[in-house]
Amino acid sequence: MLPQPVMSFRRLLCAVASHRPAPLRCGGSSPLPTAPAACSDRSAPVFTRALAFGDRIALVDQHGRHTYKDLYYHSLRLSREVCRLLERAGGDLQEERVSFLCSNDVSYVVAQWASWMSGGIAVPLYRKHPQAELEYFIQDSRSSVVLAGQEYVELLRPVVRKLGVPLLPLPPTVYGTAAEEPGECGVWERNWRDRGAMIVYTSGTTGRPKGVLSTHHSIRAMVTGLVHKWAWSKDDVILHVLPLHHVHGVVNKLLCPLWVGATCVMLPEFSAQLVWEKLLGCETPRINVFMAVPTIYAKLMDYYDRHFTQPHVQDFVRAVCEEKIRFRGDPAARRRGAHCLRKPEEGGLPLCAPRGRK
Fold this sequence. Notes:
Layout: H1 4-18, H2 50-53, E1 57-61, E2 64-67, H3 68-85, E3 97-101, H4 106-117, E4 121-124, H5 131-140, E5 143-148, H6 153-163, E6 167-169, H7 173-176, E7 196-201, E8 211-215, H8 216-229, E9 237-240, H9 247-260, E10 263-266, H10 272-280, E11 289-290, H11 294-307, H12 311-323, E12 326-327, H13 331-336
Parallel strand pairs: 1-10, 3-4, 3-5, 5-6, 9-10, 9-11, 11-12
Antiparallel strand pairs: 1-2, 7-8
Helix pairs in contact: 3-4, 5-6, 8-9, 10-11
């Protein structure tokens, strides 16, 4: 097996050899590039649009590639299991809370969509929280059931036993098996507007963390606003490296691409080396969108300073960032052009490139 630096350098050489400049699209406010929704309710959640994108790749993770159809069918099966477990014959939890602990992979999306399909409010948990904190979130949200990815079942078992809350592990088929249609799918005609959708807990800097409720209407408003402002397209491919228990990781980086039929490449956790390899590499689908928080940008720039020291490598990295990667979040910066590969404290916007539509 090759040492890690050699492997990284070979990947970089592969990227340099395969690099071709991509045409840029100028800014503008074109109509939303969306497929028709399967539900007439204007506040309906993202899963109601999934079948319109069918066999398009929705998610790429460490388990493989997952289509929109796969996500929908796996979620539908799980939602029926939730309703069966809680003995809700009508298939509607009426806003009961559904906590779930999953990795940054397909299991998270399936658990989230299943919570919504069953009429529940999704309460995402975080794998790095200690058991006492997980217990607090489950109890404070008054969750009726806890969903668990395969790797977290044993972690959660003593917690739910103490609270008397049922635990439902996600089936192994979620991770790598193409989903079959589970009978009648139906059209989700519910009054979504005022229904609770998600409870996200604050960081607890001034006391115990507090649960903040978002409705389906407010989430849809955020998603469609971001899709419009940032000109999301079904051809976009975003690299996702953020935690999924805060709004930025859930709404900006996951629900926005899934709303338009784009692709989300999801890493289990952040790694500066792996992010650079993904951004500069030869793999398809090719990443063209990236967003993160200042701490991550600082770590990426530190890795750049330590490892990309040769001038021709720096030129290549700069060219890829300018021509192929979109940095989200500052329309003014996109208008005045990219300030590539400068640290935030120097006034630059890392990985920023002008991009829009002709």
